[in-house]
Protein backbone atom coordinates (compact mmCIF):
# COMPACT_ATOMS: atom_id res chain seq x y z
CA UNK A 1 0.00 0.00 0.00
CA UNK A 2 2.65 2.54 -1.02
CA UNK A 3 1.80 5.90 -2.54
CA UNK A 4 -1.27 6.75 -4.62
CA UNK A 5 -4.74 7.17 -3.19
CA UNK A 6 -4.37 4.30 -0.72
CA UNK A 7 -1.12 5.82 0.60
CA UNK A 8 -2.90 9.13 1.27
CA UNK A 9 -5.28 7.29 3.61
CA UNK A 10 -2.50 5.52 5.52
CA UNK A 11 -1.84 6.74 9.08
CA UNK A 12 0.48 9.72 9.51
CA UNK A 13 3.00 9.74 12.35
CA UNK A 14 4.37 13.04 13.68
CA UNK A 15 7.60 13.10 15.68
CA UNK A 16 7.61 16.22 17.87
CA UNK A 17 10.21 17.89 20.08
CA UNK A 18 13.11 16.52 18.06
CA UNK A 19 16.30 17.78 16.49
CA UNK A 20 16.67 16.84 12.82
CA UNK A 21 19.96 16.65 10.96
CA UNK A 22 19.84 18.79 7.80
CA UNK A 23 23.11 19.38 6.03
CA UNK A 24 25.56 20.29 8.77
CA UNK A 25 22.99 21.62 11.25
CA UNK A 26 20.62 20.21 13.85
CA UNK A 27 17.25 21.92 13.52
CA UNK A 28 14.40 21.83 16.02
CA UNK A 29 11.53 20.66 13.84
CA UNK A 30 8.81 18.06 13.72
CA UNK A 31 9.12 15.12 11.35
CA UNK A 32 6.10 13.68 9.57
CA UNK A 33 6.11 10.09 8.27
CA UNK A 34 3.64 7.92 6.37
CA UNK A 35 4.44 4.32 5.41
CA UNK A 36 8.12 4.85 6.17
CA UNK A 37 8.45 7.95 3.98
CA UNK A 38 9.17 11.46 5.21
CA UNK A 39 6.41 13.93 4.29
CA UNK A 40 6.28 17.63 3.51
CA UNK A 41 4.07 18.96 6.34
CA UNK A 42 2.86 21.95 4.31
CA UNK A 43 1.64 19.72 1.49
CA UNK A 44 0.05 17.37 4.00
CA UNK A 45 -1.85 20.19 5.70
CA UNK A 46 -2.75 22.48 2.78
CA UNK A 47 -3.27 19.94 -0.03
CA UNK A 48 -4.37 16.79 1.76
CA UNK A 49 -5.94 18.68 4.68
CA UNK A 50 -4.56 16.08 7.08
CA UNK A 51 -3.12 16.16 10.56
CA UNK A 52 -1.14 13.45 12.33
CA UNK A 53 -2.96 10.31 13.36
CA UNK A 54 -0.34 9.69 16.03
CA UNK A 55 2.22 11.94 17.73
CA UNK A 56 5.41 10.85 19.50
CA UNK A 57 7.44 13.19 21.68
CA UNK A 58 11.17 12.66 21.07
CA UNK A 59 12.15 14.54 24.22
CA UNK A 60 14.68 16.71 22.41
CA UNK A 61 16.60 13.75 20.96
CA UNK A 62 18.29 13.78 17.57
CA UNK A 63 16.34 12.09 14.79
CA UNK A 64 18.68 11.12 11.94
CA UNK A 65 18.94 8.37 9.33
CA UNK A 66 21.40 5.57 9.89
CA UNK A 67 22.59 2.33 8.36
CA UNK A 68 21.94 -1.03 10.01
CA UNK A 69 24.76 -3.52 9.46
CA UNK A 70 23.34 -7.03 9.82
CA UNK A 71 26.68 -8.80 9.33
CA UNK A 72 29.83 -7.38 10.86
CA UNK A 73 32.66 -9.68 11.94
CA UNK A 74 34.41 -6.94 13.91
CA UNK A 75 36.38 -3.84 13.13
CA UNK A 76 38.90 -1.37 14.46
CA UNK A 77 41.19 -4.21 15.56
CA UNK A 78 38.39 -6.26 17.16
CA UNK A 79 37.40 -9.75 15.92
CA UNK A 80 34.04 -10.87 17.34
CA UNK A 81 34.92 -14.55 16.80
CA UNK A 82 37.83 -14.48 19.25
CA UNK A 83 36.82 -16.01 22.57
CA UNK A 84 38.34 -13.35 24.80
CA UNK A 85 37.35 -12.61 28.38
CA UNK A 86 36.30 -9.06 27.50
CA UNK A 87 34.13 -9.42 24.39
CA UNK A 88 31.82 -6.65 25.61
CA UNK A 89 34.50 -3.96 25.54
CA UNK A 90 35.38 -4.92 21.95
CA UNK A 91 31.75 -4.63 20.91
CA UNK A 92 31.48 -1.28 22.71
CA UNK A 93 34.59 0.00 20.90
CA UNK A 94 33.16 -1.00 17.51
CA UNK A 95 29.79 0.55 18.42
CA UNK A 96 31.46 3.85 19.28
CA UNK A 97 33.71 4.05 16.23
CA UNK A 98 31.28 2.75 13.63
CA UNK A 99 28.94 5.71 14.21
CA UNK A 100 31.27 7.98 12.24
CA UNK A 101 30.58 5.74 9.22
CA UNK A 102 26.80 6.24 9.47
CA UNK A 103 26.04 2.88 11.09
CA UNK A 104 23.63 3.33 13.98
CA UNK A 105 22.86 -0.31 14.74
CA UNK A 106 24.57 -3.61 14.03
CA UNK A 107 24.48 -7.36 14.58
CA UNK A 108 27.90 -8.73 15.55
CA UNK A 109 28.57 -11.82 13.43
CA UNK A 110 29.95 -14.94 15.04
CA UNK A 111 31.25 -17.13 12.21
CA UNK A 112 31.23 -20.90 12.71
CA UNK A 113 33.15 -21.18 15.96
CA UNK A 114 33.62 -23.38 19.01
CA UNK A 115 30.80 -23.28 21.60
CA UNK A 116 32.77 -21.06 24.01
CA UNK A 117 32.86 -18.30 21.38
CA UNK A 118 29.07 -18.41 21.02
CA UNK A 119 28.63 -18.45 24.79
CA UNK A 120 30.80 -15.36 25.30
CA UNK A 121 29.47 -13.63 22.22
CA UNK A 122 25.86 -14.07 23.26
CA UNK A 123 26.08 -13.29 26.96
CA UNK A 124 27.52 -9.76 26.67
CA UNK A 125 24.29 -8.57 25.08
CA UNK A 126 22.48 -8.65 28.39
CA UNK A 127 25.26 -6.66 30.10
CA UNK A 128 25.55 -3.84 27.57
CA UNK A 129 23.21 -2.31 25.01
CA UNK A 130 25.48 -0.23 22.79
CA UNK A 131 23.90 -0.03 19.33
CA UNK A 132 23.31 -3.73 18.79
CA UNK A 133 20.24 -5.34 17.28
CA UNK A 134 21.13 -8.94 18.12
CA UNK A 135 23.75 -11.47 17.12
CA UNK A 136 24.20 -12.85 13.61
CA UNK A 137 25.38 -16.45 13.21
CA UNK A 138 25.63 -17.06 9.44
CA UNK A 139 26.00 -20.85 9.59
CA UNK A 140 24.26 -23.35 11.82
CA UNK A 141 26.28 -24.73 14.69
CA UNK A 142 25.47 -28.19 13.41
CA UNK A 143 24.39 -29.14 9.89
CA UNK A 144 24.04 -32.94 9.99
CA UNK A 145 22.39 -33.18 6.55
CA UNK A 146 25.23 -31.59 4.57
CA UNK A 147 28.36 -31.12 6.67
CA UNK A 148 31.38 -29.80 4.80
CA UNK A 149 34.88 -31.18 5.42
CA UNK A 150 35.84 -27.96 7.23
CA UNK A 151 32.72 -27.87 9.41
CA UNK A 152 32.83 -29.33 12.88
CA UNK A 153 29.39 -29.87 14.36
CA UNK A 154 28.53 -28.90 17.89
CA UNK A 155 25.07 -29.78 19.13
CA UNK A 156 22.91 -26.76 20.02
CA UNK A 157 23.11 -27.31 23.77
CA UNK A 158 24.64 -25.42 26.62
CA UNK A 159 24.05 -22.02 28.19
CA UNK A 160 24.58 -20.04 24.96
CA UNK A 161 21.43 -21.51 23.41
CA UNK A 162 19.31 -19.78 26.04
CA UNK A 163 21.02 -16.39 25.83
CA UNK A 164 18.75 -13.47 25.09
CA UNK A 165 19.40 -12.62 21.47
From TrEMBL:
Keywords per UniProt: Hydrolase
Biological process terms in GO annotation: N-acetylglucosamine catabolic process
GO MF annotation terms: N-acetylglucosamine-6-phosphate deacetylase activity
Source domain of life: Eukaryota
InterPro entries: Metal-dep_hydrolase_composite, Metal_Hydrolase
Protein's UniProt name: Amidohydrolase domain containing 2
Organism: Canis lupus dingo
Gene: AMDHD2
Amino acid sequence: MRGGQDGARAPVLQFTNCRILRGQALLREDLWVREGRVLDPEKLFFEERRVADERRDCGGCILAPGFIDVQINGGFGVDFSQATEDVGSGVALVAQRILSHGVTSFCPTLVTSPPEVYHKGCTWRARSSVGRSGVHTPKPTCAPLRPTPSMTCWPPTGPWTTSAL
